[in-house]
Each structure stands twice: as C-alpha cells, then as structure tokens.
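Lab manual, section 2.4: Encoding a predicted structure.

Procedure: take the sequence of the chain (193 residues), apply the prediction step described in section 2.3, and record the output as structure tokens. A sample record is shown.
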Amino acid sequence: MTSLTPLYLRLAAEQKSAEVTDWPARISWVVGLLVLIAFVYWLMRQGWKWRGSLQSDLPELPTAPEGFADGEKRLTLTGRYHASTTAGQWLDRIVARGLGTRSRAELTLTDQGLDVVRPGAADFFVPASALRGARLDKGIAGKVLPEGGLLIITWAHGDRLIDSGFRSDRSAEHAAWVEAVEQLTSTTEGTAR
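Recorded output:
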C-alpha cells in the first residue's frame, strides 16, 4: 500500500480546476462586436447622406399659401407619413428636403391643394395643379402592409413625379381620399385647358 500512496498524492496534486471565465478574451470579443455594430451604423448613415447629396437638385418644398386655412376643406386626415419615392419605383426613397423622415401627419385637402403638416419634420404643400392622382397600394420604401393599406398620392415637384405614402388612423378613409384627389386633379386639368 505504501507504493500507491505517493502515486495518489501525486495525482491529487496535479489536478486543477479549469478557469471558469477568460475575462480578457470575453471583453475583447464584446468590444470587437460593439466596434463592428458602430461601423455598420456609420456606413448606413453615410449611405443616407450620399443618397441625399444625389437628390440635392430637388427644389425646396412649397409651404401652404396665405389664407389656406380659411378655405373650405374637402377632407382631413390624421395618421402617419411613411415615405416619398420616385413615382412608380416604390423602393427608390427620396431623402432630400426631409422627405425621407417618417412622422405623424395631418393632411388637409382643399381646392388650392394638399397641405401636409408633420410634427417633428418638414411640412410641405402640394398645389392642386401639381397633384397627379391617388391610389391604394400595399407598400412604399420601408413599409409594407396588406393590400390597400397605404394611401399613395402622386404629385409633381420640379421635374420629378413623386409618390408619397400615408396611412390614416382610420384606414376606411383611404377610398374617399382617392376619389377626392382624383376629382380635384380632373377639375384642375379641365380648367388648365
């Protein structure tokens, strides 16, 4: 038995428990991951700025004319403004002049045009002569809903045709808006001739 005792003691002396956590390695992985995430966000921001510089030829957005609020309102809507895109290209988002900023929106349609008030973002006005139509659709850059979930208003600004996407708090209002905008565009086309 005496010959086994030294072996037993030797084996017991050699056993060590493994380190539970390698803190330097873990911290370096976390820091590396945070740097990667920051880099990706920086690239996204640079892409947004680059798109804005490509669209810098877009003229300033018009504002509502004097006495607009005094006119007779055809329709009003409260809801969300989702995006503006090049007409017919639902993924080509326009970011210049603040049109790329999502926000709450209050729309007012009169015989003079469409006033879009956006708390926290740039308001704009679309004269009746610039309105080209309206339709119900399911998607615009950054937002996809069930069929007919978005009100898309097409309008001209400078030399561009723009689709702007809105969603009312009460989506049943969308059909009335399409009809009213179509009536207004047909009326303004008739008086322009």
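Check your result against the sample. The mean pLDDT is 87.
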